Amino acid sequence: MIVQAALPLLTEYGSAVTTAKIARAAGIGEGTIFRVFADKEELLQACVAEALSPDHAVRELDAIDVSQPLPDRLAEAAEALQAHMDRLGAIMGSLGHHGGKHPGTVRGAGREESTSRVRAALADLLEPEKDALRRPPEQIAALFIGLLFTQPRTDGEPDLTPRELVEVFLGGALTGSAS
């Protein structure tokens, strides 16, 4: 509850947020924070761990209805994964962490395990079409995640929407039949 209350405040104020402000947002006394966390730094680390955790993204992916058409499922997945990365970027940016090395284990899950949990949840969304896929669902999921998170930023061209990304991913880059 304390970490959940702190996350939006960290996005807004960065590490300058006070524990008093966090306590007010959580509806608790400031002293309660220090019964849970040794100091503000430990609280900030718990917030980073929460931001890095794949749990929220996996829950979002698991909630997508697999009876929808594949393009709809993938567009919803792209939105959920982009929202996860936006939250992570907002927290890390506000704390002055501009990329670099993953800080290590997050709630028992290191970077590789976190990535693999998200990829597995996405592969589950592809499973109903596995017989129509050119590659196994896990590999298609990895390709989709790669495309989603490495979209090139081009001058004068807007970023692809999740739906446009899915169209290019599923249909390819050609507008007509290949000769």
Describe it for me?
Residues 18-37 bind DNA. The protein is mainly α and 179 residues long. It folds into 2 domains: 1-52, Homeodomain-like (Arc Repressor Mutant, subunit A, Orthogonal Bundle); 53-169, Tetracycline Repressor, domain 2 (Orthogonal Bundle), CATH 1.10.357. The protein is 63% helix and 0% strand. It has 9 helices and no strands. It is elongated and about 65 Å long.
In whole angstroms, how far apart are the ends? 58 Å
Q: Strand-and-helix sequence, N→C?
A: HHHHHHHHH
Structural class: mainly alpha
| Number of E strands | 0
Number of helices, where a helix is a run of at least 4 consecutive DSSP H or I residues: 9
Sheet of most strands: none
Task: Give the uncertain stretches in residue-range form.
Answer: 98-108
The assembly state of the depicted protein chains is single chain
Round the mean pLDDT to the nearest integer and report it: 87
Helix content: 55-70%
CATH architecture of the largest domain: Orthogonal Bundle
- Tell me, briefly, the overall form: elongated
